[in-house]
Write a structure and sequence with these properties.
binds iron/sulfur cluster; mainly alpha; elongated; Endonuclease Iii, domain 2; 2 domains; 12 helices; 216 residues; Endonuclease III, domain 1
């Protein structure tokens, strides 16, 4: 099977089974999405969604958040991972939005990565979710699932995986493909024990085909 055929199968499968894939983070505007994505590092979307309503209520725009103190914000996010650094990042991010971007979330990767707490993955998420830009965010799920299926080959870093996926998925599908792979990794192709028995990607999945050969 060629890579072209593998990608074509995967696209057809997800278009049919997951046509409306989108982020599971709850947000109303780019500012709220940015806060949620920063909080979601090493944390589940479910937990972030339990945390953000109180933050958005108290700090509805970057302006209010930029004026927050660490002591005020910390109690609101203390139940999620790395609360100390995330508190500092959120306040720093809001201050920089105010100072450098007129209180608006910029929509280029280059500008976004200048904000505290925002790396390439977060910038790719924001630009692809808000603006449908063809920027593939590679998190742990995307990295694992793409490698198992064989959409990436010998990719040793998220950046290498990002480049391969971006090259092979049609540009207009990249923003959606990110969610396809994340959700597949979260619910089917889970890290410890992938649920291959209920997965429709078995015919093209390199990991599954390899397991089959070992059993025979
Ligand atoms: S067949 Fe198994 S390993 Fe392959 S994508 Fe599906 S769940 Fe993951």
């Amino acid at each position: 099977m060629t890579q072209k055929e593998r990608y074509a199968f995967v696209i057809e499968y997800f278009e049919k089974n997951s046509p409306d894939a989108e982020t599971e983070l709850i947000y109303d505007d780019p500012y709220q999405l940015l806060v949620a994505v920063i909080l979601s590092a090493q944390c589940t979307d479910k937990r972030v969604n339990l945390t953000t309503p109180a933050i958005f209520h108290k700090y509805p725009t970057p302006k209010e958040l930029s004026q927050a103190t660490i002591d005020e914000l910390f109690p609101l996010i203390k139940s999620i991972s790395y609360p100390n650094s995330k508190t500092k990042h959120l306040i720093g991010m809001a201050r920089m939005l105010q100072e450098n971007f007129g209180g608006k979330v910029p929509l280029t990767v280059q500008e976004l990565i200048t904000l505290p707490g925002v790396g390439r993955k977060t910038a790719n998420v924001i630009t692809s979710v808000v603006d449908k830009q063809p920027n593939m965010a590679v998190d742990t799920h995307v990295f694992r699932v793409a490698g198992r299926i064989g959409l990436t080959v010998n990719a040793r870093t998220p950046l290498a995986a990002e480049r391969q996926l971006t090259k092979n998925f049609p540009l207009e599908l990249i923003h959606k493909a990110h969610h396809w792979l994340i959700l597949h990794g979260r619910y089917i192709c889970i890290a410890r024990k992938p649920k291959c028995e209920i997965c429709g990607l078995r015919p093209v999945c390199k990991y599954y085909q390899k397991q089959l050969k070992q059993v025979k």
